[in-house]
Specification:
Shape: globular
Order of helices and strands: HHHEEHEHHHEEHEH
Strand order of the largest sheet: 1-2
Helix content: 25-40%
Number of domains: 1
Distance between the termini: 83 Å
Oligomer: single chain
Largest sheet: 2 strands, antiparallel
Strand content: 5-15%
Number of strands: 6
Radius of gyration: 23 Å
Length: 246
């Protein structure tokens, strides 16, 4: 009987050590991904990233109140901010709601309540990252089917609302025209303070970004090229990018 008890103790000890070794080994393999902070486009009013990650309680209230279904919650693959809200501008940008409901819904201060209107939003800055693919610069008409991506996203969303339907209606009217989508779809109250189309030396037009840009990501969402020509740099200001560049 004593031999059986001893064998049992030995089995438990070495089994536990084995499991612990596997966990630690797995931790060494996976920890770089677990600890890596993603450089994500956060919702309006998001405070400094480290502070944001500390304050966000992952309640999802901002997602629930967003009328454009712009906000998503990050999963395990996204880094150590699992459950935190972000915006994927390739699918749906932020449409800068006048009352900024996502901020009002945040109970923890991760989204700063001093952000009260679209002009207060500072999510990042738009950049013409791939000018060689910009069809406005080559005077190429907007192709048929350019809006399939936006429709696919909207149709996959439960309870698509009237606001989204109006956006789609406006978006759908550009087929066959010269591309001005990034400028025309800008949702802020004074879009010309953020972006406009200007003549390019090559004979076409190109988007020009101004300091009124809030980094909402709509220009990236509506860009009709396979890979958006214009993208938003998260948590970068106009001064940081364009002043430094000049």
């Amino acid at each position: 009987m004593e031999t059986v008890k001893t064998d049992k103790r030995e089995f438990i000890k070495y089994s536990t050590l084995g499991v612990l070794g596997l966990v630690l080994g797995g931790g060494m393999v996976f920890s770089p991904y677990v600890l890596k902070a993603e450089h994500r486009l956060r919702p309006p009013g998001a405070v400094d990233e480290k502070k944001f990650l500390a304050l966000c309680i992952k309640c999802g209230q901002c997602l629930q109140v967003c009328p454009y279904h712009s906000i998503k919650l990050s999963d395990f693959i996204s880094g150590h901010g699992v459950g935190t809200p972000y915006i994927d501008a390739n699918e749906r940008g932020c449409y800068a709601c006048s009352a900024v409901p996502c901020v009002l819904a945040c109970p923890s201060g991760a989204l700063d309540h001093h952000c009260e209107k679209p002009q207060d939003i500072k999510m990042g800055i738009a950049v013409l990252e791939f000018p060689n693919t910009c069809i406005a610069m080559t005077n190429t008409p907007i192709p048929k089917g350019y809006n399939d991506k936006m429709h696919k996203f909207t149709n996959g969303v439960v309870n698509t609302n009237e606001l989204e339907s109006k956006i789609l209606e406006k978006f759908d009217s550009y087929e066959g025209k010269q591309c001005t989508l990034c400028a025309d779809m800008c949702p802020i109250p004074n879009p010309l303070s953020a972006i406009s189309m200007v003549r390019d030396s090559g004979g076409g037009n190109r988007p020009e970004i101004y300091d009124g840009c809030i980094g909402c990501g709509v220009c990236q969402e509506v860009c009709p090229t396979n890979v958006p020509s214009i993208v938003v740099k998260p948590r970068v200001t106009y001064e940081q990018f364009y002043t430094k560049k000049s």
